[in-house]
Specification:
311 residues; alpha+beta; four-stranded antiparallel sheet; six-stranded mixed sheet; binds fe (ii) ion; Double-stranded beta-helix
Amino acid sequence: MHVSAPDAAATQLRQALAAGGTPAGLVAFDPDRDLRPITLSLRAAHGAQLREVADRVADAGFALIEAHEPPTPSDLLALARHLGLGEPFLPPIYRRRGSVQVDDSGVAELSAANAVPGAPMHPATSTVGQNWHIDGTLQAMGEIRTSVLLCVRPAATGGDSILFNATGAFVELARSDWAAAVSLMSPGVLIRTATVNDCDERSAGPAFGMVAGHLLTRYARTNVDRWCPRDGDMDTLRRGLDALDALALPGSPFHLRFRLSSAQGLIMANARICHGRTPYTEGPQPRLMLRGLFRADVVGERSSAREAARR
Ligand SMILES: [Fe+2]
């Protein structure tokens, strides 16, 4: 994976924007298209369904799917194989003891019911809201390309999914305030801290950057993120963050909010869009989500989906 040096990245982005047109996935969401679930069988998804998922991820940065019945971890892995995602990636922090455990399959069961008594709170295993982030807090930008989230049981109330097309919004920022955009591409500008499983490790890097010619992100706006602008120019960085905060609000074309029902799920281009969740309350049975992280890119595997369709 080739990550461009920061100045080269800015030059590449300027050239890409100057070339005219905006690549698919770097434009606003289209709710009429994006919120129409793609119905499929997780275990036996076939060619047309796989192509539709790949196209939707390419165009929107995510695909909303609906399975015939509530998923199991092996269903998630089967769908991932159909999409050419390969085996799940397990970030090392999940090997620590704590509230978020991933078994040997590589699929995490995310539920507030799994919180370890006395362990520090983490949004993944609590009912609080979760603000914008990408999965893989400590991983390098672009390392986790795809995050698959399947709903086994929704919350009694709340627990809505929220999505922010961060790379699309960043293109808009770059067109209106180039200096602020460049500030967000500087190395070390965003320091993320992993707090899951009593961890306190940090990872510094750019918030946006060019990787192998594609604009990618590790943007996050949670309470454990810190910002450290190049040359200490906080004013320029602040302009960029304020602009992106505004573009992430409800009503923005880069914002979506919806609620996953049982057997629905999201396949997200984790290095292109950010996600989060609203707070929720539990019913008699706790909210339960399954999640798998993958280093492969559904968009890049479109040909694999086509291969699978021919089998
Ligand atoms: Fe997440």
